[in-house]
Amino acid sequence: MTANLPFFDVLIVGAGISGVGAAYYLQRDNPDKRYAILEARGNSGGTWDLFRYPGIRSDSDLHTFGFAFRPWTGKKAIADGPAILAYLRETAQMFGIDKHIRFQHRVISAHWSTETAQWLVTVATPDGHQQYCCNWLFCAGGYYNYQQGFAPEFAGQNAFKGQIIHPQHWPEDLDYRGKKVVVIGSGATAVTLVPAMAQKAQHVTMLQRTPTYIMPVPAKDWIANLLVRVLPDQWAYRITRRKNILKQRYFWRFCMRFPNAAKRLIRWANRRELPKDFATDKHFNPPYAPWDQRLCAVPDGDLYKALRDSKADIVTDHIDHFTEQGIQLKSGEQLEADIIVSATGLNILPFGGIELKVDDRPVVLKECIAFRGMMLSNVPNFAFAVGYTNASWTLKVDLLSQHFCRILQHMDNQQMTICVPRVRDPDMATRPLLDFDAGYIKRALDDLPRQGPARPWVMSMDYFEDVQILKHDAVTDPELQFSVAHAVTQDKDDAA
Predict the structure, then answer these.
(1) Are strands 106-113 and 118-125 parallel, antiparallel or unpaired?
(2) What pLDDT was estimated at residue 438?
C-alpha cells in the first residue's frame, strides 16, 4: 500500500496561523518527528492571505491572537491584515517552518489502514495527483470554505447595472472613489468595510436585516506599549497576554450570567459614541443575548466616526429585490448604489472537504463525536484544530497543539502506533458541535461532527479549564484507546 511513497510522521494540512502554530510545537516537543505542511494555495497565511478587502483586521487583540511563543511587538493591539500576515510569515521563517511547506498541495482524500497504522493521503498539485503516507494527519485549515463564501441569491440580482462583490473575492483593481456603496451584512466584515470604504466613497450604507452587538475598543493597548519600554519583550508580552485573557474571560462570563445588564452596557457604549438623534434602539439593538453570536469590535470607534461624519449610515430592513440602480427594500425605501458588497458571511467546509476513510469505510462526520475538541470518535491518528468562538482563536490552537505533542510522546514511550477515541456508551446523548448562533454555523450544523454532554466529549470554550486538561492532566483516558498495528506486531515477531 505505501511502498516507495514519501513518508512523514505527521502531515499538517494548512499553512495558516493554526498550521504554523502546530508545526512550531511539533518540532519543539517532538524534534525526531518528520513532518510537512500541505497548503492548497500558493501562499502561506490562510485567512490573512486570502482576504484582501479594505480595512481587514483582527477582531481579537494580537497579544492573545498572536502565538504564545513569539511576542507581538506591534503598536496596535487590534492589527490590520497585512501586519498579521507579516507576523505570521516572519514566525514561520524565524523557526524554519517555511521550509516544510509544500504549496499548491490540496489534500483530496486520506485513507487509513489499521494494518499498517498509516494514512494514505492523495494530493492535487499542478503536476497532477501525488500520494504521501503518514502516521498522523493534523487538519489545521480551520472550517471556512476558501473557494466560495456564502452568497445568497437576491431577486432581480441580474438587473443591477453596477458591481456586486463578495469580500472573499475582492478585486484588486476595484475603484470605489466617489461612488455610492451598499454593504449588505452586519457582522465583523461589514463593520470593518463600512468605515474603511467611507474614507474614499461618496457614501456607504450598511444594510442589515438584524443588528449585531458592537463594542468600541482602543486600537492600541497602552499598558502593553508601556510594558515593552521597561521590560524584555517576552516578559511584557506574557503579562499583557495574561491580562487580556482574563479581561476577555470575565467579560464573557459577565455577559453569560447577566445578559440584560450586558446588553444595557453595550447599548450605553453605543449611545455615547453616536449623535443624540441617532436611532440607536433600532440599529444597535439585537434581538438575542450578547455572545449568542460573536461581538464585533470597533477599534478607536471608526464606525461611529463614519456615522457621525455622515460618510456612512445604517439601514435596518429586508431586501425585496434588486433594481437597475440599487436595492428595493420591503419597507418601500430604495437604496441607490454603484457597488453592492455582499458581506453575507462564509461557508463552512470542515477539514477542507477531505474525503476520509478508515479501513475502506467512509467517515461520516455527523456520525462522529469530538474528543477533547481535537479528535474524532472511531477515526485513528487524526487530529484537528478549531479555535474559540468566545475568545482569540489561537489560544485554543496553542493548547491543542501542545496536547497533540504529548499524545505523540506517550505513544513513543509506550511503543504504541495507533490512538483512537471510542465512545463506551452507545446511548450517549449528543448535541451540536458548536453552541453558537452565527448564521454560517447554523447552516452547517447537520454536516459537522457532534459533541457529548460531558468531558472528554465536549467542545470546550473555557480557556482556563483547557489549560488544566490539555497541558497538565494525563493524556490517557478510558475512552482513548492505544494499540499497536498488526503489521508492526508481525514485523517484531518475524525479527524474533
Answers:
(1) antiparallel
(2) 66
